[in-house]
From TrEMBL:
<dbReference type="Pfam" id="PF00107">
    <property type="entry name" value="ADH_zinc_N"/>
</dbReference>
<dbReference type="InterPro" id="IPR013149">
    <property type="entry name" value="ADH-like_C"/>
</dbReference>
<dbReference type="InterPro" id="IPR002364">
    <property type="entry name" value="Quin_OxRdtase/zeta-crystal_CS"/>
</dbReference>
<feature type="domain" description="Enoyl reductase (ER)">
    <location>
        <begin position="11"/>
        <end position="322"/>
    </location>
</feature>
<dbReference type="InterPro" id="IPR036291">
    <property type="entry name" value="NAD(P)-bd_dom_sf"/>
</dbReference>
<dbReference type="InterPro" id="IPR011032">
    <property type="entry name" value="GroES-like_sf"/>
</dbReference>
<dbReference type="Pfam" id="PF08240">
    <property type="entry name" value="ADH_N"/>
</dbReference>
<keyword id="KW-0560">Oxidoreductase</keyword>
<dbReference type="InterPro" id="IPR013154">
    <property type="entry name" value="ADH-like_N"/>
</dbReference>
<dbReference type="InterPro" id="IPR020843">
    <property type="entry name" value="ER"/>
</dbReference>
<protein>
    <submittedName>
        <fullName>NADPH:quinone oxidoreductase family protein</fullName>
        <ecNumber>1.-.-.-</ecNumber>
    </submittedName>
</protein>
<dbReference type="GO" id="GO:0016491">
    <property type="term" value="F:oxidoreductase activity"/>
</dbReference>
<dbReference type="InterPro" id="IPR051397">
    <property type="entry name" value="Zn-ADH-like_protein"/>
</dbReference>
Length: 327
């Protein structure tokens, strides 16, 4: 097997494509022949030693991937050799093969493309957990999605629409806003050319959005929170812009609003049965055509460093997926 190995987490340039022994799965593990792996924001942080999870060195980055089971460890009952699966295990995806905990593997129904499967779990699980579980979103409410053209943003648009909500998508360019409209957004705000608060007041008749989905952080957070509706729920999803914002607590008091943390990974660990039920429903929604990952582009696994550079330029719309044409 071959894989991109991180031996010194000082950045992408230190990654090396190496031939490694193909491992044998231990009890509870499976060996996966990787067909596709998506690039997510944490994949950038983890090779810079800036992520909250710091795997022991050396490690292969790549949190999320899809492929075929080629060997089973002892005690694995719900999977079989030759089965197509998607997995989000945190590391291991940027290579031709990897070991994965069988419990983290999502069996794929027939006809589920590998590229879509590799771009599925993280974004849809995060957005479903955020909007349905944490925000208790109701049909007819208005959702503002910040960073709406990114991976989780595009999934949030689709899930909010599937729940019967009105969606306002905010993004940083006309091209990104156009993508959001194509995914079902009812209105868009280009916050590089429009005033966010003024436009939200116009689009909501002064009421403000009931739910704000924020994977961006930074300067835009306080602007958005000042526009939230009475009893609004502000979902803290991530900080893709870099800075972690601080909010004056009186803003929450004045609007009777809630600041709600969203940590899907911890939810999955602490409430595995609820997470399994959620993933089954999401797979059904995919089959019904309610949700489908927006794929920015696919690139060969050998071009991982170029893929990192493209993501770092903040030009990715939806998900970027790396593929192994031949393993």
């Amino acid at each position: 097997m071959h894989a991109w190995l991180c031996e010194d987490p000082i950045g992408v340039d230190a990654l090396n494509w190496k031939e490694l022994p193909t491992p044998t799965p231990k009890a509870g593990e499976v060996l996966i022949e990787i067909k596709a792996a998506s690039l997510n924001f944490p994949d950038i942080l983890i090779v810079q030693n800036k992520y909250q999870i710091k795997p022991p060195l050396p490690f292969v980055p790549g949190a999320e991937y899809a492929g075929t089971v080629t060997a089973l460890g002892e005690g694995v009952k719900h999977l079989q050799i030759g089965q197509a699966v998607a997995c989000l295990s945190g590391t291991g995806g940027f290579g031709t093969h990897t070991l994965a905990p069988a419990a983290l593997c999502m069996p794929l129904p027939p006809g589920f493309p590998m590229v879509d499967a590799a771009a599925f779990i993280m974004i849809y699980a995060t957005s479903y957990h955020a909007l349905v579980d944490r925000a208790q979103l109701r049909a007819g409410e208005t959702v503002l999605v910040l960073g709406a053209a990114g991976g989780v943003g595009t999934s949030a648009i689709q899930i909010a629409k599937a729940m019967g909500a009105r969606v306002i998508a905010a993004a940083s360019s006309a091209e990104k806003c156009a993508l959001c409209t194509s995914l079902g957004a009812d209105a868009t705000i280009n916050y590089s050319t429009e005033n966010l608060r003024d436009r939200l007041k116009e689009l909501t008749g002064g009421k403000g959005p009931d739910v704000i989905y924020d994977p961006v952080g930074g300067d835009i957070t306080e602007q958005a929170f000042r526009s939230i509706a009475w009893r609004g729920r502000y979902l803290v999803v991530g900080f893709a812009s870099g800075p972690i914002p601080a909010l004056p607590f009186n803003l929450a008091l004045l609007k009777g609003a809630s600041i709600v943390g969203v940590f899907w990974g911890e939810f999955a660990k602490r409430e595995p049965q609820a997470n399994t039920a959620m993933m089954k429903e999401l797979a059904q929604w995919y089959g019904q055509g309610k949700i489908k990952p927006a794929i920015d582009r696919t690139m060969p696994m050998s071009e991982l460093k170029a893929a990192y550079a493209h993501m770092g330029s903040r030009q990715v719309m939806g998900k970027l997926v790396l593929v192994n044409d031949t393993n």
